[in-house]
Structure formats: C-alpha cells, structure tokens
Amino acid sequence: MSSETLRIDSRYCGPPRSGNGGYVCGRMADYIEGPAAVRLKAPPPLDTDLRIAQVEGMVRLLAGETPIAEARRAELDLETPAPPSFAEAQASSKAYPGFARHSFPRCFACGPQRTAGDGLCIFPGPPDDEGTVAAPWIPHAAFANGDGTVRNRYLWAALDCSGGWAVIPQQAGRAILLGEFCARIDGAVAPDERCVAIGWPIAIEGRKRFAGSAVFGASGRAVAVARATWIEVEAKPFADA
C-alpha cells in the first residue's frame, strides 16, 4: 500500500464548504489508467490535507480515517446525443436557470458568480424536447497543461454540472449532490477552443437521478463522456456558508 497527500483548494468548491464533485473525481482519476469510476462517500473538505491510499487497484481518499471517496478502473459504454452547434449552445445558455436561482452560486463548474479563469463558467441552457441541456465552453488558459491542452481534471469538472442540470430538481429548496461518477476521456481540447458541453437525463429512481454528459471539441467530436448518479437533498444544510 502506498499513500500521499491531496489538498482541495477552496477555489474548487461546489457547495461552499466542500469540493466540486467532478473536480475531486478528476483528481482521483489521475491515479487510474483509462476510464474510472469514483464514488463520493462524504463531502470532500476544502483546504485540508487528505490522504490518498492505493490498495490493490483501488484508490481511496481519506480525511484521517474517514473515507471521502473511492476510485477504480471501469468501463463506460454510453451513447451520446448529437451535440448542438456552438451558436445553438450559446443561445440555449442565455436561458440558464442558474442565473435566476442557484443553490451553490460559487460552484467552480457552473456558478454564475464565477468569472472566466476563476471557474469554468459552464451554464447549461434549458432542456430541449429530448431533455438535453447544452452550454458553450471556451476553456481558459489557466486550466492548461504544459503541453497546451486542458488538464483532464477540468474535463471531469466540465462533465459534472453539465449532466446535473439535466436532472436538477425543480422545487425550491432542493438540490442534488454527486454520488458516483464514471468518465472516459477520449481526446483533448485546447485553451480558447470553442467547445460544447451537454447533459441528458437517463433515469430517476426515488432520490437518485442518473444523467449522462459529454464535452465536444471544435471539430464536433466527443472528447469526454460520463455517467453520473446524483442524490437529491435539501439544499440549505449544504448551501449555508
């Protein structure tokens, strides 16, 4: 067994006091070769030294002895809807419901209180006839690797809220938190590339909501795909700073 320390800076919050689920899952996926599935077992604390433990192919994230998340290699076979054009995604994003009401307005991925480079600024517009939401995304240079492409952890974060807005509760005071995330990175995008992020509903079972999401590069090719399990919760305990 090997272990090391991982720290989630407050910049990468989802709810005010915990990490953005997609970003945290992406950080853990750095330890997995190929597609990965990550189960979040507790809200990831911010500005805290967490322990990464690798045991027999499983990667665990621990706060002391408290399990925060577990990651493993996985397979993902998910058919993606055809994406809208960048211009169509721009038009859809103008009606982003989060502009009017957002449980976590500082969310790293989709918070309307973020600016480019500080957050991803992905604002998925209302669902179409098939339930798909869409947003334009122009990755900022702050999210690039040394090789000039966007780091995979930010693709994971982009996939996160894109799917969430396809299954978000409509009732005031309700929210969803990421429970499990399985993603596959099939390509790369560059800073300032005109990308499109989409999300679509798969199923709802009680408090569990299942969604797919994808990020498409300027060529129209899907570079990242994910399937998420979301858990419906009361927003207030997680939204209070």
Task: Describe the structure using short key phrases.
241 residues; alpha+beta; Thiol Ester Dehydrase, Chain A; 10-stranded antiparallel beta sheet; 4 helices
Largest sheet: 10 strands, antiparallel
Name of the CATH superfamily of the largest domain: Hotdog Thioesterase
Q: Mind telling me which CATH architecture of the largest domain this is?
A: Roll
Please identify the oligomeric state.
Answer: single chain
Low-confidence regions: none
Could you estimate the helical fraction of the residues in percent?
Answer: 10-25%
CATH class of the largest domain: Alpha Beta
- In the CATH hierarchy, the third-tier topology of the largest domain is known as Thiol Ester Dehydrase, Chain A
> Which whole number gives the mean pLDDT?
95
- Order of helical and strand elements: EHEEEEHEHEEEEH
Cα(first) to Cα(last) distance is 37 Å
Described by the principal axes of the CA atoms, the overall outline is globular
Number of helical runs?
A: 4
Topology:
Blueprint: E1 2-7, H1 21-29, E2 36-40, E3 49-55, E4 58-63, E5 66-73, H2 86-93, E6 133-137, H3 152-164, E7 174-185, E8 195-205, E9 208-216, E10 222-234, H4 236-239
Antiparallel strand pairs: 1-3, 2-5, 2-7, 3-4, 4-5, 6-8, 7-10, 8-9, 9-10
Helix pairs in contact: 1-3
Q: What does it look like?
A:
With 241 residues, this protein is α+β, with helices and mostly antiparallel strands. The protein has 2 domains: 2-73, Roll (Thiol Ester Dehydrase, Chain A); 86-239, Thiol Ester Dehydrase, Chain A, CATH 3.10.129.10. It is built from 4 helices and 10 strands; from the N terminus they run βαββββαβαββββα. It has helices at 21-29, 86-93, 152-164, 236-239, and strands at 2-7, 36-40, 49-55, 58-63, 66-73, 133-137, 174-185, 195-205, 208-216, 222-234. A 10-stranded antiparallel β-sheet has the order 1-3-4-5-2-7-10-9-8-6. α1 packs antiparallel against α3 (152-164). It is globular, with a radius of gyration of 16 Å.
